[in-house]
Amino acid sequence: MLELDSISLHFGQHPALTGVGLSIAAGEQIALIGPSGSGKSSLLKLIATEYQASSGSLSMGGLNPDTIDAKALKKWRQSISYIPQHLALIPNLNVAQNILLGQVGQQSTLATLGNLVRPNQVQLERVHTLLHEVGIPEKLYHRADTLSGGQLQRVAIARALYQKSSIILADEPVSAVDPSRAHALLECLTQVATEHQVTLICSLHNLDYAKRFFSNMIGMREGRVSYQGSSEHFSIRDFEDLYSLQHG
Amino acid sequence: MLELDSISLHFGQHPALTGVGLSIAAGEQIALIGPSGSGKSSLLKLIATEYQASSGSLSMGGLNPDTIDAKALKKWRQSISYIPQHLALIPNLNVAQNILLGQVGQQSTLATLGNLVRPNQVQLERVHTLLHEVGIPEKLYHRADTLSGGQLQRVAIARALYQKSSIILADEPVSAVDPSRAHALLECLTQVATEHQVTLICSLHNLDYAKRFFSNMIGMREGRVSYQGSSEHFSIRDFEDLYSLQHG
Amino acid sequence: NKPAEDAAASTSENTPVLRFSAIPDEDTTAQAQRFQPLADYLSKALEVQVEFVASPNYGASVQKFSGGDIQLAWFGGVTGVQARQAVDGAQAIVAGSADLNFKSYFIAHNSTGLQKSDTFPSDISKLKFTYGSQNSTSGCIMPTHFLMEASGQSPQAFFTQEFGFSGSHDKTLELVANGTFQAGALNFKTYEKAVAAGKVDPASCVVIWETPTYADYNMTAHPVLNEQFGEGFIKKLQQALINCDDQAALNALKRAQLVPVENATFDGIASVMEKVSFK
Amino acid sequence: MDKSLPPTAPLMSWRRGFLLGFILVTAYCLWELGIDFVQLPPSASPYQSAINFFSAAWQPAFVEQNPSLPDGSPSFINRIFGNLLTTLRYAFIAMSMAVPAGLVLGFFASRIWLDATKHLKPLLWANYLAVRFITTVMRSIHELIWVLLFLSFLGDSPLTACIALAIPFTGTLAKVFSEIIDEQDPASSEHIHLAGGSSVQAFLAARFVIALPDLLTYTMYRLECAIRSSAVLGFMGLETIGLAIKQSYENNYYNEVWTELYLLTITVICFDVLGTLVRKRLHRPAPSPRGNTATASIAELKQARPRWKLLPITWWLLILGAVIAWTVGDDLNQYHSHLSRWERFCSFAKQLIPEPVRHSGNWNEALPWLSELWKTDGAQGLHMTIIIATAALCIASTFGYLLAPWASRNIANASPFGIHQGPASALKAFSWRVLGFCLRSLFTVARSMPEYIIAFLLIGILGAHTWPLVIALAIHNFGILGRLWAEVNENHDQAVSRHLAARGATRTQAYLFGLLPTSFNRHILFIFYRWETCVRESTILGMLSISSLGYLISRESSFLRYDSMMYFIGLGVLVVFASDLISVTLRRQSR
Ligand SMILES: Nc1ncnc2c1ncn2[C@@H]1O[C@H](COP(=O)(O)OP(=O)(O)OP(=O)(O)O)[C@@H](O)[C@H]1O
Ligand SMILES: Nc1ncnc2c1ncn2[C@@H]1O[C@H](COP(=O)(O)OP(=O)(O)OP(=O)(O)O)[C@@H](O)[C@H]1O
Ligand SMILES: [Mg+2]
Ligand SMILES: [Mg+2]
Q1: Is the model's pLDDT at D23 over the cut of 80?
Q2: Which residue has the higher pLDDT, C96 or D305?
Q3: In sequence order, what DSSP letters do the residues of D313-350 get, joined into one string?
Q4: Are residues D416 and D478 in the same domain?
Q5: Least confident interval from A229-238, B34-43, D6-15, D31-40
């Protein structure tokens, strides 16, 4: 159970989030939609504990990441996989190494180093299977900086899946891939989520995908939650309310 | 008139493009589609002269960028705006400065330097108008690294428009913005292209956009041109040919 | 034969080695090669193991001497005093015969118009002046001593312009000869040799004053030698050096013969050092 | 719709502030030093020394110029190669201590830990300041002084010399490593944090990996410095190439000097080339894996891992070199003295106690002693040192900054940033390469030529005053900054420059607007690092009686007044620590 209670986030005077209140049940699968700059990424970063709220509180299973101790925070973080919009891959490591780093939170430092230098059979096999799932098994040993835009995104997805967590936060995970691949990836994500009772929050600009793969949607506009409900009931009216252009 | 004659591009042994032949008339507006990793970005980089073909030849108005002299090449380059998929913005400069750099090819070094330190009113006003068009006028003086994913993409679009060129190459220019904004942006791009007789080649993963805004499409698969024709005639069959998953 | 081996090992470990260091007053490169004959001579004459230790400057030799890393060293006048002050019981044992009557030259470029005089040339106060290296006896300390005696002022007060430290006698000579500095002080031997070799024209680089003589270079022995090699060893060493007629060994020091000295020989310098100051 | 322009952007930013400050500081130093560069007495023949010196360049010696060597001693060439081997050996030993220590300290001296955990904050800050202070002390004391201190209680074994060399190197490596690490893009390491990884993991798996080319570049450069600083080892009686140069020079054996300089430069270039090859490898994508990994079994997959030959070969060679250096040859840890190390330490430490206290045992007397030293020499020495170091650095960095881009292989190239510029005539391509090569060689020569030689020649040309010393320091640092900056340019992300160049920007524009804004911080990092070294290197300024800290330190040490020597060293440490804090703040603000 993820609870957000009237959360605000400011950068200087600029409010990126204002009074966001949400409660998301374990295992729920939600699409996060809204115009560019409305605060979707900020919200996801906040849940991923990359940002701290300026006011309001966040909690999961009664624990607030701002007040718990370092050990509990580490646990909290391990239980969340996050696919950032900018991917945060390491350009001069190869794909396998990047994906192996998904489990860095669960491992000792020495084990991580060992993995980077010489991954063991079992791990390599899992990485390879994941790469098959996202469709780039042939890139296993390519350096990340030689991949195409969509291939990079898929490495980031594979890394998140490799982590084995109870929450997946995906920030525009399929924006750079073609429709077939996007379908396959979203199917894979939702399937994993359903199978393992994982909470999935996925920001999307493509409403078709949002409607097709997610039963619930949260719409953001100018840092506030302006729509919350099932995808089916998301009407043209709602669309216009959410997306009508502010400028230009 | 842009002519590509059986162009191939290799990275090591890996072929990113194989035998690509195309001819694109001045003022044409074309959507470039195809699965992730099929070579769209490579093709655009090649036309933008960022890569050189391993074999085959490229020419515009009879001029081949590989053989013309440095001065003519500079002209060629100035006549092409390019929005790379990775945007290539400078994180620690502000939005206005990033956009002003769109004209770096047309200016002397000193003038550019002056612009960055203190842009003149006329230029600043043009930049501001462009920012209005892409919907983020309030970000004029914000540093690029404080912008959201979609906002960054829009800065890159504004920079390309600021350049005033006769060809615009756009690599997934609206992948990170919401549907309304994407519509507005594509409308803006095609309108500019129509008004000024600009050739527009725009890679897109969203087929709806491609069909709606572009009358012609080029489909790539595994480094080859596998579809070329009007958007209207792009059938389900064609879609399957182009996008059917190779792996997974 | 196990115990025998042990014994051999332990003796080789405990056999004391006489380590000495020396820096020639000229031609300072390739020290190890140069002093090997002296080491060989001492080793043969005293029947102990002798090892030469190179040092880039006298400061390093003093440090090593006071720490016991070397037990015998060829010092300049000043550094010898420093070493003997640092080590109780250290003795100056020999010096070259000319070293007891050493002197410095004050030289000047002929454009200054200065001529050789018998009294201290006070006119140099307005000139660009250079010493040799900072702890050199003949290139810095003694000239300063005579300067202070004659003028009653420290060099800082005496000279109206900043003075230099060229680093060596050869450099002082070069700098004054080509007019970069107008005057300087150096070891008389270096000057004489350069003139003899035709490297310097005595008319353009004039000796304007000769200092009174003083005792300079000497060989100083560490008292631990007597502990390590047996009572009276220092005496034996002194004798070996005085009696040395091995030309190769003497050549290393560029001295025709060595004569006995004692600490008191250098009392003059010791008292000079207390007075000389660069503040 | 509101079309009016928002209020103008602020004119001052930290970056512009830094540039303005730089100009002001330069102007102030010029004003302090005065601009009459030439102060020669009438009738001086200014170029005589330089002509003597440089005319020997065409006739390097192959036999000893020293006339007083006994017959049958080994030949000059033998001696010099022996010296070079000794130098390499001890440089390897010193570096094999300094690199691990520098990495560990650099790890702790990095800012990134400060943001790690909230409740550990005070502890982390304390650690940060303490480590930074310790590393400052280590590097702000010249090798020569460390050697002096260590000789006093470790004895004159080669190991002592290596430790003395390793300590300031460790301090410098720690500083530069930590700052290179701080300057990396934080996105990837932040991500590892968010996945629950510890700060250490985030550091090792992301930041360190990304920073690797920069770290390597700097380590290779440091190895080169170790070879050049080897004259220090002469203190322990090791005849190294640095000492050979110094002594040949002092004896006016200029032909010998040139042979030795050539040998040193060639060695330096060899290491330079090796470093370049390694960096090239690190930047270029790995060779393609063998076979098709899409269909391969896992066993085949492991086999298919791409392998680079050059990298492991280099690592093993370097490690082997270090092992050989430690094990083969003369015993490293010799001890000959009858005194125990502890006894020596005590007797030396006693000399460090302020003189009045040593006699009376009353520490209250230390204060008047301190203030007396400050009044007579300290204040002025400090002032002069800062002026000289700053002036030298301003000059060096101005010229270095102008030339460094044209020495970067990615820019001085027929296709800058890999963007082709029309069919390159072979001549044009060649000219660019030659330009790059010449500038890099200029940098190499400028930094291989010992500062004291440059200073001496300049004193001949300009007269005996402060400027020759300043310019000598400037020339030496120019060579170092030029190299370091050129390599930052080569290691930097090229994406924006490539984009601009492909849009018709000239070489200069692509550099200025694509590369410089984001690499600015890494550039100023080296300015501060070199400034510190200038303060340290002012020991060469002992050549003139200009009362800089260097002159005071060498004066006090030659009179064996170690107490006041330590006082002046302490002043230097404080200056360097202050500069370190300024550098950290500035770089943080101008991100
Ligand atoms: N570090 C920052 N400093 C200042 N402003 C910021 C920062 N990060 C985000 N913002 C601002 O906060 C607002 C919300 O940004 P956010 O990245 O959450 O938008 P988003 O909904 O993810 O948009 P997009 O769909 O374009 O990615 C934007 O206006 C952005 O400019
Ligand atoms: N610098 C490079 N080195 C090696 N391989 C590369 C390099 N750049 C691209 N490739 C490979 O070339 C192929 C085509 O890449 P490209 O970026 O053109 O694809 P794309 O069609 O733009 O894909 P996407 O839609 O995912 O952006 C990919 O398989 C990619 O891995
Ligand atoms: Mg976003
Ligand atoms: Mg692409």
Answers
A1: yes
A2: C96
A3: HHHHHHHHHHHHHHHSSS-SS----SS-HHHHHHHHHH
A4: yes
A5: D6-15
What is the number of other CB atoms lying within 10 angstroms of the CB of residue D116? 16
Identify the residue among D20, D190, D499 best suited for mutation to test binding to B, counting B beta carbons within 10 A and taking the highest: D499
Angular region, A24: left φ>0, alpha ψ -120 to 50, beta rest? beta
Structural domain that includes position D512: 352-590
CB spacing of D155 vs C69 below 8 angstroms: yes
User: Is D191 an interface residue toward B (CB < 8 Å)?
Assistant: no
Residue B200 binned pLDDT confidence (cut-offs 50, 70, 90) = very high
Same domain, D329 and D357: no
C115-149 pLDDT, tens digit each:
888 888 888 888 889 998 887 888 888 899 999 88
With CB atoms and an 8 Å threshold, state whether D194 touches A77.
Answer: yes
Is the model's pLDDT at D1 over the cut of 50? no
Ligand 2 pocket: which of B13, B17, B41 to mutate (most atoms within 8 A of CB):
B41
> What is the pLDDT at residue D540?
58
pLDDT at D292: 60
Which residue type is seen at D377?
A: D
Those chains having 3 or more beta-carbon pairs within 8 angstroms of chain C are D
Helix axes D562-589, D121-140, angle to 10 degrees: 130
Same domain for D368 and D319: no
> Of residues C278 and A134, which shows the higher confidence score?
A134
Total domains present in chain D:
2
* pLDDT per position as a tens digit, B210-226: 999 999 999 999 999 99
CA dihedral D149, D155, D159, D160 (to 10 degrees): 0
C21-47 pLDDT per residue, tens: 988 877 888 888 888 889 998 888 888
**Spatial separation of the C-alpha atoms in residues A165 and A152, rounded to whole Å:** 21
Residue D10 lies in a domain: no
Mean pLDDT across D511-536: 86
Q: How far is D148 from chain C (nearest CA, A)?
A: 8
Q: Give D423→chain B minimum CA distance, Å.
A: 5
Q: Tell me which of D73, D240, D251, D375 to substitute to probe the interface with C (most C C-beta atoms closer than 10 Å).
A: D251
Report whether A30 contacts A24 (CB < 8 A): yes
CATH of the domain at D201: 1.10.3720.10
Residue B27 has pLDDT above 50, yes or no: yes
Q: Do D73 and C63 touch (CB under 8 A)?
A: no
In the chain, the amino acid numbered A201 is I
Among A151-155, A239-243, C154-158, D13-17, the minimum mean pLDDT is found in: D13-17
To test the pocket of ligand 1, the residue of A17, A18, A33, A41 to mutate (highest count of ligand atoms within 8 Å of its CB) is: A41
Q: Does residue D432 belong to any structural domain of this protein?
A: yes
Q: Minimal Cα–Cα distance from A245 to chain D, Å? A: 12
- Quick check: is D302 in a domain? no
How many residues are present in chain B? 248
User: Given the CA of residue A12, which atom of ligand 1 is nearest to it?
Assistant: 4
Cα–Cα distances in angstroms (integers) from residue D433 to residues D92, D394, D410, D413, D438, in the given order? 32, 28, 10, 6, 8
Does residue D567 share a domain with residue D545? yes
Distance CA B81, CA B102 (A): 8
In a domain, D22, yes or no: no
Together in a domain, D461 and D517 = yes
Contacts of B85 in chain A (CB under 8 A): 149, 176
